[in-house]
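Quick one, T. Sequence first:
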Amino acid sequence: MEYNFDEFFNELLESGAVELSALDENGNPLYSFTEKILSLHPGLADKIQNAFHNDMMMLWQLGFLEMDITLVNPTVSLTSKAVDEKELDKLPYELKITLQTIKQAMRIEP
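Structure tokens:
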């Protein structure tokens, strides 16, 4: 069986497991996973959650986030680097998107 990303992605959109959430700085669409992903594709949901967690840890290590990683459910806050355009420009695209997602969750505009 051949894997077709576009077909799979369209299936996720149609099922409501993925939804348009925002546009990046270049106007490209950004998508979010909904709760439906947990029941429709639990393995994929785990991989997505692990990738997001890894990105958060990298942002913390780079000084963009503040959190106490010794806690089971740490409170996450932004540092001054997270709103400094010169510092943000140094981040790879994937980490910029993760940080933008965190800001949106906090309801803080970039």
